[in-house]
Design goal:
This protein has about 375 residues and is α/β, with parallel strands linked by helices. Helices cover about 40% and strands about 10% of the residues. The chain is built from 13 helices and 7 strands. It has a 7-stranded mixed sheet, sandwiched between helices.
Length: about 375
């Protein structure tokens, strides 16, 4: 995959104008009449984000909250990292729910979004927190991002829509070090959504089958159209049904129709959906564990009758829900489907990264 090295070399070898040297002291300099003024050195044009480095950047977007964006981002990246992929998560949400899902809320590595804000303010490359999980790095979000919206409003007034390239500019220098990059977008904050859509190559939309989730997709469709003016490579991977409690054809047909209305007839819908499992969702946030990590702990915990006979109590007086295994299986299926779509897209795209994604049958099982 392409990294920042090539861009650094090109920048270092960029030709610049040179000036004539003055004569040495004591030398006679013959005056020349009507010497044309020396051309002024022109500043280099602003560097454009490296499209190849961002080619596997996926924005998780829905203008409605509570539809599973953060849960899907965390669990997909966690499973991919466990299978040997290098993954980066960028949290644009002021609520910073990724910190809860990955278990680092208020830990020393949690800067509450300060690093992300400073990078965008100064135009310096992002500095991810490394090793939140093996192979999984994170740029945390949080309360400091409250200052990002007025900053972007000011920049848009000064520079127009080109200001929305800010995230792409600071993400591109590091994105090439990863196999997959996910951007977790906040709901109902169109300016931050525009930042993510301008940086991303792909959009993935979680939704519930209720009216709110479908309306949120329509609003994303409007932002998607605008973002393609700056980022013409932006594409729609599809929509994912989250916590629906149903896999019926009727529900799928309704969601597919809603996606088609929002995106001008293009209506991809993942065949995998993430089932509703309230206990597992509560366990995940309470313990800062991902579904496949809970699955392993459920398999290791003693049977309830054995624990009772031994006088043992689970942490907090609660046993982990066995539904974690089913939810983890849903995320595994979704991950395979996602990698398959990315691989097919890259095989048909001559501008795709030189390093192909592994085929699903070649992947390690987390």
């Amino acid at each position: 995959m392409t990294g920042p090295a090539g861009r650094t070399a090109r920048s270092a070898t960029r030709r610049r104008g040179t000036r004539a040297r003055p004569g040495r002291a004591g030398e006679t300099v013959t005056p020349v009449a009507a010497v044309a003024p020396e051309p002024q050195e022109q500043p280099d044009p602003p560097a454009q984000p490296d499209g190849d480095a961002l080619a596997r950047t996926i924005a998780m977007v829905n203008d409605k909250g509570g539809v599973g964006k953060t849960s899907i981002v965390a669990n997909l990246a966690g499973q991919f990292a466990a299978a040997g992929y290098r993954c980066l998560l960028v949290d644009l949400n002021r609520q910073a729910n990724l910190a809860d899902d990955l278990g680092f809320r208020d830990e020393p590595i949690d800067d509450h979004g300060a690093g992300l804000l400073l990078s965008i303010v100064g135009g310096s490359p992002l500095r991810p927190v490394e090793g939140v999980r093996p192979g999984l790095d994170v740029v945390p979000g949080g309360s400091r991002l409250v200052d990002l919206v007025p900053l972007m409003v000011s920049r848009v007034q000064e520079r127009g829509r080109d200001a929305f390239r800010a995230l792409a500019d600071v993400l591109a220098p590091v994105a090439g070090d990863y196999d997959l990059v996910f951007v977790d977008c906040p709901p109902e904050t169109t300016i931050l959504t525009d930042l993510a859509l301008t940086a991303a190559r792909w959009v993935l939309m979680p939704t519930k089958s209720d009216v709110g989730g479908l309306v949120g997709m329509r609003l994303v469709g409007e932002r998607f159209t605008l973002a393609r003016e700056l980022n013409p490579r932006l594409g729609l991977l599809g929509a994912v049904l989250f916590a629906t409690g149903s896999r019926s054809r009727v529900v799928h047909a309704e969601v597919r129709e809603a996606v088609a209305r929002a995106f001008g007839g293009h209506s991809p819908l993942f065949t995998t959906s993430i089932r509703h499992a309230e206990r597992t969702a509560q366990d995940a946030r309470r313990l800062g564990k991902l579904a496949h990590e809970l699955e392993q702990e459920v398999a290791a915990q003693p049977a309830w009758w054995a624990a009772l006979r031994a006088g043992q109590k689970e942490a907090g007086g609660r046993r982990l829900s066995p539904t974690a295994a089913s939810v983890a299986g849903d995320y595994r299926d979704l991950g395979v489907e996602l990698l398959t779509l990315l691989r097919e897209a890259e095989e048909s795209d001559t501008t795709a990264p030189a390093t192909p994604l592994a085929r699903p049958e070649q992947e390690a099982t987390p």
